[in-house]
Specification:
- The chain has about 325 residues and is of the alpha/beta class.
- It has 2 domains: about 200 residues, 3-Layer(aba) Sandwich (Rossmann fold); about 80 residues, UDP-galactose 4-epimerase, domain 1, CATH 3.90.25.
- It has 9 helices and 13 strands.
- The radius of gyration is 19 Å and the shape is globular.
- Bound molecules: uridine-5'-diphosphate (UDP).
């Protein structure tokens, strides 16, 4: 039986990935220090005969008994609020954590997949962003801890590929949403849904004209799995090219939740990218992949999940 290790496996994307890899017939070992991940995300997997959870910080030396066929490095705070709350952990997991997991991949002769990010493009000067755009990142700004950690992680991954011939993959993940996002992770969609459902003010930063391209989690996981099983070593963008302004997202969430919350405007965070849209031509060509789930359809599922969590918090669930 093939065995996969998923770091950050109790996080939002990581937990969906663990689930999918189990469905693919693999034995899955999930490592997570639960800094931003949650045991609730994997509670339903704990009894599974092909799943094992180990609470562990992957910036420390990693020892795993037995064979490993795949290592997927998804551990990292990923929302701007989280990585600014944990700047040093973010730098360490992207650098030391990538080094440790690549060392493990070399030792086990495992295929390695790095979760990178659209943030490597920074506040982009080219639109949409293709993989060969080198980005516009402020290394010392508040987002630099995440952006530069991931840029370092990509460099380290390619070095292990070129020097040690580790079989590597790099996915650049654009904004993704869906069930199991933390309600308080600080990102636009979780904030807006929670605020709308609680009848609180919906906080749009700036004038809301900045854009993002939001991809539903099921599509993202499908793309990641296809990349893992492909033979392509250079970075691949995955995301939904449908570009929305943040204000449109706030208005849509208010409508879908039937909320009467007012939309209020707050200061735009420092270095907040003004535009972001993936060029997914490469993913289409080499993986035959493009997103299938419409944004509103995905939002409805996500809102249902958030309602469930909020009901549980009130003791009604
Ligand atoms: N944003 C907002 N209100 C919020 C949270 C975020 O207007 O309550 C904005 C944020 O400034 C950014 C966009 O929504 O322009 C997406 O932010 P998010 O934190 O989801 O992810 P990012 O793409 O910036 O990493």
């Amino acid at each position: 039986m093939e065995r996969a290790l998923v770091t950050g496996g109790a996080g939002f994307i990581g937990s969906h990935l663990c689930e999918r890899l189990i469905e693919e017939g693999l034995y899955v070992i999930c490592l997570d220090n639960l800094l931003t991940g949650s045991p609730d995300n994997i509670a339903h997997l704990l009894g599974h005969e092909r799943f094992r959870f180990i609470k562990y910080d992957v910036t420390d030396y990693i020892h795993i008994e037995g064979r490993l066929d795949y290592i997927l490095h998804f551990a990292s705070p990923a929302s701007p609020a989280d990585y600014q709350r944990h700047p040093i952990h973010t730098l360490k997991v992207g650098s030391l954590g990538t080094h440790k997991t690549l060392g493990l991949a070399k030792e086990k002769r495992a295929r390695y997949l790095l979760a990178s990010t659209s943030e490597v493009y920074g506040d982009p000067l080219i639109h949409p962003q293709p993989e060969d755009y080198w980005g516009n990142v402020n290394p010392i700004g508040p987002r630099g801890v995440y952006d530069e950690a991931k840029r370092f992680a990509e460099a380290m991954t390619m070095a292990y590929h070129r020097v040690h011939r580790v079989d590597t993959r790099i996915v650049r993940i654009f904004n993704t949403f869906g069930p199991r996002m933390r309600l308080d992770d600080g990102r636009a969609i979780p904030n807006f849904i929670t605020q709308a459902l609680k009848g609180e003010e919906i906080t749009v930063y700036g004038d809301g004209s900045q854009t993002r391209s939001f991809c539903y989690i099921d599509d993202m996981v499908e793309g990641i799995v296809r990349l893992l099983f492909s033979d392509y070593n250079l970075p691949v963008n995955l995301g939904n090219p449908e570009e929305w302004s943040v204000l449109k997202m706030a208005e849509t969430i208010r409508r879908l939740t039937g909320s009467t919350s007012p939309i209020v405007f707050k200061p735009l965070p420092v270095d907040d990218p003004k535009i972001r849209q993936p060029d997914i031509g490469l993913a289409k060509r080499i993986l035959g992949w493009s997103p299938r789930v419409g944004i509103e359809e995905g939002l409805v599922e996500t809102i249902r999940y958030f309602e469930g969590v909020l009901c549980g918090e009130k003791g009604l669930g």
